[in-house]
Amino acid sequence: MPASSTPPFNPADPLGVDDLLSPEDLAVRDTVRGWAADRVLPHVAGWYERGELPGVRELARELGAMGALGMSLSGYGCAGASAVQYGLACLELEAADSGIRSLVSVQGSLAMYAIRRFGSEEQKRHWLPRMATGEVIGCFGLTEPDHGSDPAGMRTYAKRDGADWVLTGRKMWITNGSVAGVAVVWARTDEGIRGFVVPTDAPGFSAPEISHKWSLRASVTSELVLDDVRLPADAVLPEAAGLGGPLNCLTHARYGIVWGAMGAARSSFEAALEYARTREQFGRPIGGFQLTQAKLADMAVELHKGVLLAHHLGVRMDAGTLRPEQVSFGKLNNVREAIAICRTARTILGANGISLEYPVMRHATNLESVLTYEGTVEMHQLVLGKALTGLDAFRG
After folding, report:
1. Domain 138-235 in this protein, CATH class
2. CB 90 within 8 A of CB 72
3. 374 is catalytic
């Protein structure tokens, strides 16, 4: 290639990943980035400090108007965007805050995806159009107080009573729970594990909010209490039987995390880079010292490798060739590296790194939750270990 045609080095995109994106991809990214800059970034430090997400229903409607809710689903008012475009949206939302990306992920990749993939035609028509606009917020009830990594041990139980179902049990750490209009709840039955579409105004359903969190503070997190909740026969998801249903949903949601974690990492890296250019010690900017440059170089390498990995998985998802083990690969690597980037960024900012005037500590604490939800490090290591060796070590 002639030297004159070589594009200049771009510190914001050192590998030229933007060249892999279509004009439509870039438009989605820029739209979501602009919305987050206007509606989230000016306020999120205060939300985080107070442990609240005010106006969540209004935010949901705005996200729905952008097509960000269930955006990779087709039909029923959903945007039908590509997996890559959905990933880019997750990256931009989490660059603002993990809590905002979680709102979107749980709505689209868990609650809406479960209904779209496993629901009846009546369930899809009744719920999905209103969820796509943000008129109805959804949540996803799988994790229980005593059963996280081993959902097969769940105690929530659904029994038949004539033509009805009666649900009893508790779910824990449920994003969107107390603001949801519909919950997708997984329960044991005499026929195995089944999924149920539960209107949250059903008698016996309650969702007390969980407080005293030091992570995902700008997010609604709740317990779900099901006290003999009576549902009609058609509340069951007809196409989901066994653990395959909820695990399929989790794979879809984990894919968004692969991208989202890089958003938190990018925000922290950019804060550290700008600080290194302007903060002076010993008579010059600290970015001019070798040790600081080594930190910035290592952070940039892991950040953009992670974005490349996310894009690769998105291309595979769009092609219909993405495997759950590959999603585990991405979730394990990108969240772990994102936390490392945040911690290194904090060292560059010094004492300022713990201040909410900068996003670094907020992202770092949020990512501690992202590291463990939808599959802990250990679970994804075992998924990959089994895929590599052919030997199942989950119960060994």
Report:
1. mainly beta
2. no
3. yes
DSSP character string of 331-347: HHHHHHHHHHHHHHHHH
Domain edges within the chain: 13-133, 138-235, 244-389
Tokens of 368: 């501690």
The single residue of 223, 302, 337, 374 carrying the catalytic annotation is 374
- pTM passes above 0.85: yes
Looking at the domain covering 244-389, what would its CATH class be?
A: mainly alpha
* Mean pLDDT, 10 residues at a time, the chain of 396 residues: 77 95 97 98 97 96 97 96 98 98 96 97 98 98 83 90 96 96 96 95 96 95 97 96 91 95 98 96 95 98 98 97 96 97 98 96 97 90 94 80
Strand pairing report for 182-189 and 138-141 = parallel
According to DSSP H, which parts of 97-243 are helical?
A: 98-105, 113-118, 121-133
The CATH number of 13-133 is 1.10.540.10
- In 3D space, the residue among 34, 35, 28 whose CA is nearest the CA of residue 58 turns out to be 35
